[in-house]
Fold this sequence. Notes:
2 domains, 4 helices, alpha+beta, single chain, two-stranded antiparallel ribbon
Amino acid sequence: MRVLADGRVKRSAAEWRRVFEKCEASGLSALAFCRREKIPRSTFTRWQQRLRVAPSPPDAARFVELPLVATGADALLSSAALELSLPGGVVLRWRR
């Protein structure tokens, strides 16, 4: 890694591969990782595309199973509705 006179950092392709491995191991989203490591997000994305590294899905995009547990309330559940409002205006509705 070279630091230029203007403060910018230059990395080789091999160094970028290590950055992507470190990001994956961190468990953070790419945005959170870039903020923590002070890496411009646009540079991170450009190198991902150059090296064709698949980005890890953000936490919000990961599947989470929500099991329905009924304790003798099957009659009530047959007409129940569930609505979940998420950040960003996403609303999930479940009707039985």
